[in-house]
Design a protein that fits this description.
Layout: H1 28-41, H2 48-61, H3 66-77, H4 84-94, H5 100-108, H6 125-132, H7 158-164, H8 172-182, E1 192-200, H9 208-216, E2 227-233, E3 237-242, H10 248-264, E4 268-273, E5 277-279, H11 281-284, H12 289-299, H13 309-319, H14 321-324, E6 330-334, H15 343-356, E7 359-363, H16 377-382, E8 388-390, H17 395-405, H18 416-424
Parallel strand pairs: 3-4, 3-6, 6-7, 7-8
Antiparallel strand pairs: 1-2, 4-5
Length: 425
């Protein structure tokens, strides 16, 4: 197998155990196998056969331009459209130039301050970077820290701490682990009866048409009753998420949970609002979570800005309620309710939204405080028009929400508790 040429088709050194690589040592096949493993760790569905097909494809086309090499490997490894951004990022990082001399000269040369905006991280870049460094051996000169034995009895595990940790207080590594835990949450299984029927073996609803069709097969000599029952389907789920400055961190994490929900059930509609309403349902249907959230960020113009809850709810009720709130829809409203003006409009639009859906659940991160009271004008205007009032600030609250969406109603989420408390005070 021929090696790569020096026109930008140079690969990084292969980690220990995978063999080295150079322009003339003929280790291209080993690097293709290792590249296949990197793609598998990054989430692409590739097997051992794909590595063999890639070697055969490169052997057939030869080492020409970088574009031809990319097209050949893409045709072998990419089986789903949503995997293309991850493959492109892995190809860019793995098969990059090794112009080390030029890089060292540029690093030693003085540079002016770069005030340009940082390039936006591409979809799948984090997973690809982790996949590339997964097999890197530890440095032999690195001293290992001394081992300390700790008696962990009667202590709280790291998983339990992460479940109850506030999203706003998490580090980057803890946020990444929280996103992975969200993908493992048990998703809701609630279903409602539809107007359509399906065959059933149990009475009491008789299916006249099916009974007559069965009787015609015997010429009417034998008439056996056939039964039917209503079909059940998950109700539509509509999400209205606040992306203002005080809610941005919580909404971004919740979108990961919502993406997993969108993959496993149909009729999930997502709307983001700050000072305006944005429909991001199409972006959330992308299979890759990084690409989906990147699409949402690009579609929204007022992320981490101000908020106008009443005006955006009025826009939703006017333009979208009749389209998406049919067949017993459930609405998740994610906001802190801190509306300073237009409280009358907010109360009117909340009442209309409540009447248009089967169940309205308000998720508020302010409930993380033990002494929360409904004192804000916006909160007082919204509370009488919701069915449940829940927190949305950590993994445990999202796990409770998944249980609630499955039909489990608890008294702890009853908004009347806060309304009665307000009346008493």
């Amino acid at each position: 197998m021929a090696g790569l040429s020096d026109d930008g088709m140079i690969v990084p050194p292969v980690p220990a155990g995978a063999g080295g690589f150079g322009a003339g040592d003929g280790r291209l096949a080993d690097n293709l196998v290792y590249f296949s493993r990197v793609l598998r760790r990054a989430g692409l569905k590739t097997g051992p056969a794909a590595a063999g097909d890639a070697i055969a494809a490169v052997d057939a086309i030869g080492i020409g331009s970088r574009e031809e090499f990319h097209a050949a490997l893409s045709a072998v490894f990419v089986r789903r459209h949503e995997d293309q951004p991850v493959f492109d990022e892995a190809f860019r990082l793995f098969w990059r130039s090794r112009d080390l001399v030029g890089k060292m000269i540029s690093m030693m040369s003085p540079k002016a301050a770069d005030n340009r905006e940082r390039e936006k991280q591409k979809a799948g870049a984090t997973r690809v970077s982790e996949a590339l460094t997964a097999d890197q051996p530890e440095s032999p000169n690195r001293k290992k820290p001394p081992e300390i034995e700790v008696d962990s009895r009667l202590t709280t595990s790291a998983g339990e701490i992460l479940k109850r940790m506030d999203f706003a207080q998490m580090s980057a590594a803890e946020l990444a682990e929280a996103r992975r835990q969200l993908m493992k949450l048990a998703l809701p299984l609630d279903k409602v009866a539809t107007r359509r029927f399906r065959p059933s073996n149990r009475p009491p609803r008789i299916d006249p048409r099916a009974t007559m069709r069965q009787a015609m097969k015997s010429g009417g000599d034998l008439i056996l009753p056939r039964f039917r029952e209503r079909k059940t389907a998950p109700p539509p789920l509509v999400v209205l998420a606040d992306i203002s400055g005080s809610m941005s961190q919580y909404t971004r994490i919740f979108l990961h949970f919502l993406h997993a929900l969108t993959e496993r059930r149909t009729r999930v509609h997502t709307f983001l609002f700050g000072t305006r309403l944005t429909n991001v349902t199409r972006q959330m249907r992308r299979r890759d979570p990084d690409e989906a959230l990147s699409g949402c960020t690009d579609a929204v113009r007022d992320w981490s800005g101000g908020t106008r809850i009443g005006a955006t709810l009025a826009e939703f009720n006017r333009l979208w309620s009749r389209r998406v709130l049919g067949q017993g829809a459930v609405v998740l409203l994610i906001t802190d309710g801190l509306e300073r003006e237009g409280v009358e409009e907010l109360e009117r639009e909340m009442d209309r939204l409540h009447r248009s859906c089967r169940r309205l659940i308000w998720l508020n991160p302010l409930l993380r405080f033990d002494g929360f009271e409904a004192r804000a004008r916006g909160v007082r205007a919204m509370l009488p028009h919701v069915d449940e009032f829940r927190a949305v600030h950590n993994l445990q609250s999202l796990a409770d929400l998944a249980i609630a969406l499955s039909g489990d109603h608890t008294k702890a989420a009853d908004p009347r508790r806060y309304i009665d408390m307000r009346r008493v005070t």
